[in-house]
Amino acid sequence: MFNLLFTNFLDLQRHEQASFSEQRQAYLHKLHADGMGIRHLRGLAGLLIAIDELLALRESDTFEIPLEYIVQKTSEWDSMTRQQRCDMRVEVNFHCRFLGASKRWLTYLGRLDHRYYPEDNIISKIFPRGYFRVRHLVSPMYMERLAYLEAQEQQGVPSVTLRRIAQYQLTAIELLDLPSTSLVTMSEIQNAAAIWRDVEDPSKRKKSGTDNSYRTFIHVTTNWLSHMGLLAQPEEHDFPEKDKIMSYLNWLVESKGYSAQTHRSRLSILRHLMNYLQGSSLLLADIQSTDIDSYLKERHYNGCNRRTIAGLVSVLRCFFRYAADRQWVKDDLWKTLSAPRLYTMEQLPSYLHWDDVKVILTESTRNPTIQGIRNHAILSLLAMYGLRSSEITELRLKDIDWRNSVIHLRRAKGCRPQVMPLIDEVAQPLLRYILEARPKYPKQEFVFLTTRAPFHGICTSTVYQVASRSLEGRQLNIRHHGPHSYRHSCATRLVNEGHSLKEVADVLGHVKIDTTAIYAKVNFSRLREVSDMDWKEVLEL
């Protein structure tokens, strides 16, 4: 092959005496058979000798050449060549030429770093172009970036999104000076995002002033750092008597078994109270019942109704009883708190007429999209079983027993298990969603998943949005436009069809029959029987 390329004796002798002579001839012959011209082969032959010398390749060695070492030698060759060549007509991009030729030559020899091949890591898989592939493989925090990308791929994130995440990882490393010894705060991420938003880089086709770049940088960087445990958690705002409040809340969780949600809600209530007392120049030890009354009046004037005020009083009474046991406040303070009077079943449930529910369910079947199929299944569960939002989000694939036509539920209150018959009105939408719309590959046990990757179980706010949007634009005389309207509608339908309150309570998952008794007020068939009575005989008694 060398005789075909070189007519000069010195050039021919140089190429024949250099290392890897037989391998280079076979490699060049292969390229010539694939269609490469003589001129390009002659230039490549000289480049292969330079590669062998710079990388210090020896025929007796068999170990892989790290990509970092190749990139380092590529920079040295690029700098050296630019200093020696003054002809402006020659190829400018020496760097890419040497790097590309090195990768192909080492691949032929079987000496290239195994990380470069797509089957060995996800970075090589998502970057088909060699230059960008090498750049991401040799950049800092390789293992940290690789682990996060693999985790995202397992959740169903497509390659185009993974490629964007990988690019933002390198930008975050540069702007945040990663890896750092300390945790990264949200303010530092936001400042870096602002720099990235305003920078202009024509070589990267990056324009300044795009808010989307700002938001994407924060989103990707926050999730990545959180995955590595390098994101500093936001500090809770200090408020008066914080140590005592946290002691009480921890006691609720550890000793009383209260949930984390209760912990958060009571923390919000008590923090608001402590800030109010601080604004009134009051200490916890000096507080009087009149001060609590003033606080409750203020909450009422700011929009809290009687039921909300009653809930606040219940929370405060429990806290002041705990505080009295530890002598933080007066012993009898919790006894003096009085809640507004609440009348049992003073209002009718906010429900939809069943004809309206059937119209909504029929209309939801006409949306053939993935989101539409999923939402129809959710609405069917809300309307037919009267489930709560959390009961839908916690529903798992194993909870549906198709063979025996039953569905296993976890009730939100008390976490009590319950088995319900799987009726066709629910089974068909669920089956259609699982077969046609639910993502197949993510390893998720929940029935309802997000429609966009990364796929995970939906949250209660998603169920609320599905229910709320299904009620938009309709002339409905209801107070609430959420999932509980469907729950009330389910109970009202069952009562009006003649089912007993005990049966309705079983469907809704009520422990006490008194909770279900309010639906007796909407039993219109019984009310009509009362109105049709002959009241004359009763009045004459």
From TrEMBL:
It comes from the Bacteria. GO terms for biological process: DNA integration; DNA recombination. Keywords: DNA integration, DNA recombination, DNA-binding. Residues 239-324 form the Core-binding (CB) domain. One of its GO terms (molecular function) is DNA binding. InterPro entries: CB, DNA_brk_join_enz, Integrase-like_cat_sf, Integrase_catalytic, Integrase_recombinase_N, Integrase_SAM-like_N, Tyrosine_recombinase_XerCD. Residues 347-532 form the Tyr recombinase domain. Pfam families: Phage_int_SAM_1, Phage_integrase. Gene3D superfamilies: 1.10.150.130, Intergrase catalytic core (1.10.443.10). PANTHER family: INTEGRASE_RECOMBINASE PROTEIN MJ0367-RELATED, PHAGE INTEGRASE-RELATED. Belongs to the 'phage' integrase family. This is Integrase. It comes from Duncaniella dubosii.
